[in-house]
Structure formats: structure tokens, C-alpha cells
TrEMBL record:
Pfam families assigned: DEAD, Helicase_C, MZB, WHD_HRQ1
Name of protein: DEAD/DEAH box helicase
Family annotation (SMART domains): DEXDc, HELICc
ATP-binding is among the record's keywords: yes
UniProt GO BP: interstrand cross-link repair; nucleotide-excision repair
Domain Helicase ATP-binding: residue ranges: 108-294
Lineage: superkingdom: Bacteria
Annotated spans, Disordered: 26-47
Annotated Helicase C-terminal domain residues: 335-487
Keywords, ordered alphabetically: ATP-binding, Helicase, Hydrolase, Nucleotide-binding
Species per Swiss-Prot/TrEMBL record: Streptomyces arboris
Length: 822
């Protein structure tokens, strides 16, 4: 029997101040006042005072396991390069910025020299101004050209909200330049009647990789004048382009570069990123170009108080009698309520759409008990809303009409939310880069700020709140992406051939995997080779072959059964787990039950309801080894990396009581299985190792299963993944290895680089896994160490002490350095 844990994609030695990417500086308009004291009359409470108020109450202070204080820091000024037009410098000064920070001036110098550059400095360090100064100067010069369109620039953001926010900033900054700078958003929300104007007249187009992939590149003849004049491509928040999504975006950018060359343009790429490990390397893999790095942050920062918060144990018991902590969702809702009552402007970040809705609902209910005018000051913000809903929420946040917001990562990125005093993070967001990005949403006007990380009841969160050095004494992770993934590359070769026939010189642009893939695409009758190159053969659009977000398939529309009203969408990959029959779906604070999931028509019919529970899907998984790429001995055991095929089926769902997480029941489901070819890391142990670890056949399955769950929970510390990006299977006798084996695999077709990173950091990864299990205070296993909320086997069997002994014995044979780091 195999025990498994499925990812959502198929389901759905340095000091802290030298590496921490929190640099809470003043906003762009306050660039001339480094380290200033609070304005006269500013009566906002200090971050420490806000935290003290949150900790007031029975047992609350004991929930704070660690508090990190980062003192304020002054900034270092420079002067703009003399090639920046004086009109642009004057416009910047009119915005209240007397002098740039040193990193802003350095980045602008590289850009004007024609060097692609990545600005990797902290949140609110003025990265936007660093790339806008050279871009606006170049656009101004282009507007004075006697003939032709002049210069153009393209801005790419990972979300529509960020692009819209940037347009507001650019329009305001460039206002003194008159008609020389014409910014316009071009995305799925742009009305049809405006699109032709954007193509013909806008010289600063703000869009996202999805629209570039599906709309702009396939229609490049209509964009020819824009592409011919393209001087700069700005890629904002480039650290978000990781895994499968990042790999897709890397190929979209190669298609863009190819078409630009066709029209005689060679744009400079300007990338902005939160502080990341080796940003120039990651930016180079993303763009396919050499990229210069500017990472010495010269901006000031306000004081940051960062608290780690662990919800208390309840009197309830979960599966197998395990102790249950209060949910991070309920705890976060309480904190957001208290902050709102204090008048503290706050954002609560939560990983799931449903979680954002739930926190908003709970906070509204509790605020109504205090003051009936307060519930309207809190809202939810997430992907899947209709465009008009998103724009209204963004306006309310900017105006201060909203005091508290429960948001998904859609608000994590560089949207200007100046004036926030506190951030509550509901569960570790998966990477240290995201953690600091979210924490940096507060304090963006130079004032002190508070960040609180509320731990979920899982191995990683529990480990972190009791090992603060893992957050505050470690650098952020390296960005992982693999543009050569054949599942990513193949559809982009087809899309490129549809845009312009592929030729021999294009092979080097798209990477070393192309020669092997082209014959396969010919055999599949997707491409046909002629004298002029490889041509797209189908009548349908080649760009529709792939969803660059990695979901695959047509999004499922969520429709209200009684009215036919479209509520939103969910990715096809998540439909089996998110909108199966009986699932609870939240939208704008209203609860719905899914009555029918029609996979053929990609529609989920829902009706409004008010159940006292949430739902969690469960599944079963089998795995087979297709090819072993690398294999090294770990004592008698083996550590391997290669290709696998995973077969998964969602078989049931649990109903959990909203406030406690208590399981109320399980309902069977009849959904078709799905298969996935991907990459995995796996390890085996021998009979002698089992004997040495005192693992008998009766507890072997539970020991392997527990080690698998915990290793999945801890991997995000070592790879830029979320635990839902990866899956696992453990089996006492696997038919391909003929040994007890634990697999951890990427939850995306062709792999996403996470399993490879796990292979290269296996020794430290599995050591941390063993420590997390051994240090947990529970007796036989709980959600904080070895239980998994997604386990298809109902967390049965699990053997905590067996897992510790098994990992101890395995690690005895690990090579001193493990596999070479990559």
C-alpha cells in the first residue's frame, strides 16, 4: 500500500540585518527625507505598543514565541546620471524627491548604458523610480523625433492590480511631461474599443505575461510599430517568476526578443525584485541575457517589530486522537478584528482564496458586536473576482475607506498601500522572499511597522516559530525555474512557429532541448518542416496550447445555479479539489455549496448556503519510476533523482467545523483519475538499515509515511516552493526499487525544479525534517509534525518515533556535503 500527499497543482552564517530584505523606507514621494521622525501631530501608536495591545488577554502573551526588532536605518543619496533629461529630473523633484538613493542612480546608469539590469533591493526602496527615470527620459527623447513613433517601453507585472497601480504612479509622475509619455494598461480587462488606441498611440504599455503570451505576440503585425521602437522591457516583481510559471514566462520573453529582432529592435531589460539570492543569475535564466545586478540597498527604513505567534492548543482532538491547535485562520481573524478596533490600518495575508473570504467574514461578525459601523471597514481581496470588484476594492484601500483587508498574494506585490501600520501573515507563505515581501507592505511611508506571522498547525510553521534563526539569520532562497522543461518548451515552440516560422538560428535562443523536441512536434503533426523553417500546421491558435500559470486546461466557471450569474473562475487543475460536488465555496463574504461539477463543459453550479463547516478534498496516489537520472549511495541506502509518473484520484472530502477544525464527517466522491509525468527525488533503505533503526514490519509503513509528510512540510525552507507545489508517496516495498522508498515529486508536468533542489540539499533538508519530528511535544504525532491535511489515507498509518529512528539511520550514511549544491 502506498501513502501519499498530493500537491495543489494536481489538486488544485550571515547576520540578520545584512540579509533581511525588509527595508521599510519612505515611499517614492518621501525620498528626500531619510530616517525622518514621525510628522508633528502623528499620534499613531508605535509597533511595540500595537503588539502589546494584541498580547493583552488571557494566555495571549504566551502565544508570542519570538519578537525580532529591526532598528531604523538612514539612507545614502546620490545624483542622477547626466543623461537623464532635466525635464524628467524636474518632474521627479515636483513629486517631492530631491535626490535619488545610490542604488536608484546606479541602476539608471546601467540602463542608459544599454545593459540589462536587475534591481534587487528591499520593499519600498524605490525600485520603480530606478527604472522609471531612464525609461521616461528615453520616451521624452523619442517624442521629439521628427519622424516615426519614437521610443516605446513595455511593462510586465505578474498581476493586473499591480499594472493598474503602476499606471496611476507613472501618470502622476509624468504629468509635467505633457503628452510625451502616454501610459496605458493592456490586459484582459481593457475594453475592446480602447485596445486599438493603445496599439497605435501608447508608448508605455503596461500588461502581464499572460496577455503578452495570448494577445500581443500572436498579433505582432498589429503591434509592429510599437515593437520596432521598443527600447525597454520592465519586468516588475521578477522574483515571482519561479517554478513552472517562471519557466513559461522565460519562454514568452524569448519569443518577445525574437519578434523584436525581426522588427529591428534590441530592448534593454530592467528587472525589479525583492532581495533574493543570486538575483543576476535568476534574471539571466529568466531573460536569456546577461544581467547586471544592483543589490546594495541605499534606502532608509523605519523600525520593524516582527512577532512569531503560535495559536494555543484546544481541548479538541483530531484524527487518531491527536491534539488540535486553534486554527491560524481563526487566530488571524481575531488579530485583524483587534487591529481594526484600534484603528490600525492592516492587511492580513492568507494563502488561499477561501481563507481570505473566511477571515473577512469572521472579522465582520466580531466587529459588528463592537460597532455596527465597523464591518464595512473590512473586506476580502483575492484573485477570481470580477474586474469591477477588484478595482473598487483597490480604490477603497487607497482612500483609507478600508481599515482592514484579508488578502491573498494578489496584494503581496508592489501595489502602493502607503499608510499601513501592520501586517498579519496567516501561515508561512512558502518562502522567506514572500514572507519579507508581505511584511514590507506596512511601513511604506517611513513610519514604524508591525508584522505578525501566525503559525498554522503543520510541521514547517511549527518549526519556524520555535527556530526563529531559520527566518532571521538566513538569506532568502534562490529562484528555481527550468525553461528547458519539455512540457513548457514544446508549446512555446509551436506558438513561436505560428508567429514566425522557426529557423536554425532560433534554436540557440530557445535552448539546448530544441533539437530533440522539433522531431517530436513534427511527428505529432504540430509543426511541418519546409525550406523556410518549421511552420505551425493547425488552424487553431498555437498560443492556446498552454496555460502559462501552469494550471493546464480551460478554467472552470463558477455559476450561481438559480440566477446564472458568473461568480468567478477556478483553474482546471484545482477543480477536482476546490469545486467538487459538496464543496464549500466563498465569494465576497457569501458562502455557496457546489451542487454540480461538469468537467466536460468546465462549469461548477453553486447555490448560496450557510453551512457551519469548510471542506477539504482527499485523494489517493500511485507512482512509478520512468528514468533515474542520478543515483548516489547513502550508506546502504540510495538517494535518487529522475522522472516519474504519478496517478492521482480525488476520492472523498472532509467537512471540518469552521472555528475549531474538528472533523465532522467524510463523503465519498466519484471523479476520474489523472496522470502526471514529472520529476522526483526519492530515497531507499535496506533491511539492515531497518534492523539497525529497530523498524519492524508492523511499523515500517507508518515510519515511512510520517517521514514523507514531514519532509514535504519542511522542503519550502530549501527550495522556492509552497508545500502545495509538491507531493509525495511512501511505500514499504516499491515495485521499481524493490525496497522501502519515499518519493517527493513536483506537482507540475515535466517538473518545476523543486525536487532537483531537494536532491541537492538532501542532507540539510532531511536533518531539519528529523529535528522537526523529534522536537514536537506531542506523543504519537500531530499536525505540527507528521499529520497532513491533504493525506489521502486519512493519516493512517503514522509512527512518529519510528520516523525519527529511520531518518537518524538514513542520515548516518549521508555523504558529508551531500550532492553538490546547485
Amino acid at each position: 500500500m502506498a501513502f501519499n500527499h498530493l500537491p495543489a497543482a494536481m489538486h488544485d552564517a550571515l547576520g540578520p540585518l545584512s540579509v533581511t530584505p525588509v527595508t521599510h523606507s519612505v515611499s517614492m514621494a518621501k525620498n528626500h527625507r531619510p530616517g525622518r521622525p514621525p510628522e508633528s501631530g502623528d499620534t499613531r501608536p508605535s509597533p511595540a505598543m500595537i503588539l502589546d495591545r494584541l498580547a493583552t488577554g488571557a494566555g495571549r502573551a504566551a502565544r508570542i514565541t519570538h519578537t525580532e526588532h529591526l532598528p531604523p536605518r538612514s539612507g545614502t543619496h546620490a545624483i542622477w546620471p547626466d543623461r537623464i533629461r532635466p525635464e524628467v529630473i524636474s518632474a521627479i523633484e515636483k513629486a517631492g524627491i530631491d535626490h535619488p538613493w545610490a542604488h536608484q542612480a546606479a541602476a539608471a546608469e546601467h540602463a542608459l548604458d544599454g545593459e540589462s539590469v536587475v534591481i534587487a533591493t528591499g520593499t519600498a526602496s524605490g525600485k520603480s523610480l530606478a527604472y522609471l527615470a531612464p525609461v521616461l527620459s528615453t520616451l521624452l527623447e523619442g517624442s521629439e523625433a521628427p519622424n516615426g513613433r519614437g521610443a516605446t517601453a513595455l511593462y510586465l507585472a505578474p498581476t493586473k492590480a499591480l499594472a493598474a497601480d503602476q499606471r496611476r504612479s507613472v501618470k502622476s509622475l509624468a504629468a509635467p511631461l505633457g503628452n510625451a509619455v502616454r501610459p496605458a494598461v493592456y490586459d484582459g480587462d481593457t475594453p475592446v474599443e480602447e485596445r486599438e488606441w493603445v496599439r497605435q498611440y501608447a508608448n508605455y504599455v503596461l500588461t502581464n505575461p499572460d496577455m503578452l503570451h495570448r494577445g500581443i505576440l500572436p498579433s505582432h503585425p498589429r503591434w509592429s510599430s510599437f515593437l520596432r521602437a521598443l527600447r525597454f522591457v520592465v519586468i516588475d516583481e521578477c522574483h515571482t517568476y519561479r517554478g513552472v510559471f517562471g519557466s513559461h514566462v522565460a519562454q514568452v520573453l524569448r519569443r518577445l526578443r525574437r519578434l523584436c529582432a525581426r522588427y529591428g529592435a534590441d530592448p534593454v531589460f530592467l528587472l525589479a525584485s525583492a532581495t533574493a539570492a543570486a538575483p543576476s543569475v535568476a534574471a539571466g535564466r529568466l531573460t536569456g541575457l546577461p544581467v547586471t545586478e544592483v543589490s546594495d540597498d541605499a534606502s532608509p527604513r523605519g523600525e520593524l517589530v516582527f512577532a512569531l505567534w503560535e495559536p494555543p492548543l484546544t481541548d479538541l482532538h483530531g484524527e487518531k486522537g491527536a491534539p488540535v491547535r486553534r486554527t491560524a485562520t481563526a487566530e488571524t481573524a481575531d488579530l485583524l478584528t483587534d487591529l481594526t478596533v484600534q484603528g490600525v490600518r492592516s492587511v492580513a495575508f492568507v494563502r488561499s482564496r477561501r481563507g481570505a473570504e473566511l477571515i473577512s467574514v469572521i472579522a465582520k461578525e466580531r466587529l459588528a458586536e463592537v460597532d455596527r459601523s465597523l464591518p464595512k471597514r473590512v473586506a476580502a481581496y483575492r484573485g477570481g473576482y470580477l474586474p469591477e470588484e477588484r478595482r473598487a476594492l483597490e480604490r477603497a484601500l487607497h482612500s483609507g475607506e478600508l481599515l482592514g483587508l484579508a488578502a491573498t498574494t494578489a496584494l503581496e506585490l508592489g501595489i502602493d498601500v502607503s499608510g499601513l501600520d501592520a501586517v498579519v501573515i496567516c501561515g508561512y507563505p512558502g518562502t522567506r522572499a514572500s514572507l519579507w515581501q508581505q511584511a514590507g507592505r506596512a511601513g511604506r511611508s517611513g513610519q514604524g511597522s508591525l508584522a505578525v506571522l501566525v503559525a498554522r498547525d503543520d510541521p514547517l510553521d511549527t518549526y519556524l516559530v520555535h527556530h526563529p534563526e531559520a527566518l532571521f539569520r538566513q538569506p532568502v532562497e534562490s529562484t528555481v525555474l527550468d525553461p528547458d522543461n519539455p512540457y513548457v518548451l514544446a508549446p512555446h515552440l509551436c506558438a513561436a512557429a505560428a508567429e514566425l516560422p522557426l529557423t536554425e538560428p532560433d534554436i540557440a535562443l530557445f535552448g539546448p532541448a530544441v533539437p530533440e523536441l522539433l522531431p517530436q512536434l513534427e511527428a505529432a503533426k504540430l509543426l511541418r518542416r519546409r525550406a523556410s523553417g518549421w511552420h505551425w500546421t493547425r488552424r487553431e491558435r498555437a498560443a492556446d496550447l498552454t496555460d502559462i500559470r501552469g494550471g493546464g486546461g480551460r478554467p472552470v466557471q463558477i455559476v450561481e445555479e438559480g440566477t446564472g450569474r458568473l461568480l468567478g473562475t477556478v483553474d482546471a487543475a484545482a477543480a477536482h479539489t476546490a469545486v467538487h460536488e459538496g464543496a464549500v465555496h466563498l465569494h465576497q463574504g457569501r458562502t455557496h455549496l457546489v451542487r454540480k461539477l461538469d468537467l466536460e463543459d468546465s462549469v461548477a453550479l453553486v447555490e448560496q448556503a450557510d453551512p457551519p463547516y469548510s471542506t477539504v478534498a482527499r485523494d489517493t496516489t500511485a507512482i512509478s519510476v520512468l528514468e533515474t537520472d542520478t543515483e548516489i549511495p547513502w550508506g546502504q541506502g540510495r538517494l535518487c533523482y529522475g522522472s516519474v509518473q504519478v496517478t492521482n484520484q480525488v476520492v472523498s472530502f472532509l467537512r471540518r467545523r469552521l472555528m475549531t477544525g474538528e472533523v465532522m464527517g467524510e463523503t465519498k466522491l466519484d471523479l476520474p483519475p489523472r496522470t502526471l509525468r514529472t520529476r522526483a527525488v526519492w530515497w531507499t533503505v535496506t533491511e539492515d538499515q531497518l534492523d539497525a533503526a529497530r523498524i519492524n514490519p508492523e511499523i515500517l509503513g507508518g515510519a515511512l509515511h510520517a517521514a514523507e509528510h514531514a519532509s514535504i512540510g519542511l522542503l519550502p525552507l530549501f527550495a522556492t516552493c509552497d508545500r502545495w507545489d509538491i507531493g509525495g508517496v511512501s511505500i514499504p516495498l516499491h515495485p521499481d526499487t524493490l525496497l522501502p522508498t519515499v518519493f517527493v515529486y513536483d506537482g507540475h508536468p515535466g517538473g518545476a525544479g523543486f525536487a532537483e533542489r531537494a536532491f541537492h540539499t538532501a542532507r540539510t533538508w532531511l536533518t531539519a525534517t528529523r529535528e522537526a519530528i523529534a522536537s514536537c511535544e506531542c506523543e504519537a504525532g500531530c499536525p505540527s509534525c507528521i499529520q497532513s491535511p491533504k493525506c489521502g489515507n486519512g493519516n493512517e498509518p503514522l509512527h512518529k518515533r519510528g520516523a525519527v529512528r529511520l531518518l537518524t539511520e538514513l542520515l548516518k550514511g549521508a555523504p558529508p556535503g551531500g550532492p553538490p549544491e546547485s
